[in-house]
Amino acid sequence: MSLGAHLLEFRKRLMLSAAGLLVGMIVAFIVTDPIIAFISEPINRVAEESDQLVALTFNSVTAPFDLRMRMAFSLGLFLSAPIWMWQIWAFIMPGLTRKEIKYTLGFLGAALPLFFAGCYVGTLIVPHIIELMATFTPEGAQNLYTAKEYYDFVFKMMLVIGVAFVLPVFLVALNFAGILSGKAILKGWRVAVLIATTFAALATPAADVVSMLMLAGMLVVLYFAAAGLTLLLDKRRRKNKIAAGLDPDLPAA
């Protein structure tokens, strides 16, 4: 294809992705009420268990609508993911070999469930964080959470934990590319445990040790699972080289 044909194809894929996002935003906008009720549940629990005034507040006339639009955009991205991801895939697929296509599909098939699993773990951790932080409010003070900042906090926590769950997939990808061996990945387990613990400590309140240990434990398990898989892949490559009469210690060309 010529450069002009590539640009036309890119514009077509971009327009289809934008249309899918728009439909996803419309659907998400319709269901914002139950989502707002869901993320507000920790606030309601804190209000019931304390004598303080705890509420979700809107600090401008347009704030309620702005919140729904922000939610519609972020949730619309999730809902329309099959559409815009397929458009990206359809644009780059003609330039990939059959082997690269198989690997890419495998990585996507592993990364997407892990990302959504991480987001789900985020929904379990965030309420504990909110309830714990509310206990530090001085007597006589009030917890009035601005809707925009509260939603950003919940969304970013889910996003960060979701991305953290996907990181082991990148380790496997680096192994496939011949950049990291399984032994090298396993050798760095001390650093990995330290990073997982530090990340969990930063992502959860210092006083919420249980949530921190749960998150750190999940990340460490995923790391060792990735290390174990890369060791098996290295062993398989070694056997294939020996069967082909090649030196198994030489890197792939």
From TrEMBL:
Gene Ontology MF: a single term: proton motive force dependent protein transmembrane transporter activity
Highest taxon in the source lineage: Bacteria
Membrane topology: Multi-pass membrane protein
Cell location: Cell membrane; Membrane
GO annotation terms (biological process): intracellular protein transmembrane transport; protein transport by the Tat complex
Family matches, as InterPro entries: TatC
Keyword set, alphabetical order: Cell membrane, Membrane, Protein transport, Translocation, Transmembrane, Transmembrane helix, Transport
Membrane-spanning ranges: 14-39, 71-92, 104-130, 153-177, 189-207, 213-233
GO CC aspect terms: TAT protein transport complex
A Pfam family the protein falls into: TatC
Main localization category: membrane
Quaternary structure and interacting proteins, as annotated: The Tat system comprises two distinct complexes: a TatABC complex, containing multiple copies of TatA, TatB and TatC subunits, and a separate TatA complex, containing only TatA subunits. Substrates initially bind to the TatABC complex, which probably triggers association of the separate TatA complex to form the active translocon.
Main function: Part of the twin-arginine translocation (Tat) system that transports large folded proteins containing a characteristic twin-arginine motif in their signal peptide across membranes. Together with TatB, TatC is part of a receptor directly interacting with Tat signal peptides.
Family statement drawn from the similarity comment of this UniProt entry: Belongs to the TatC family.
Name of the protein: Sec-independent protein translocase protein TatC
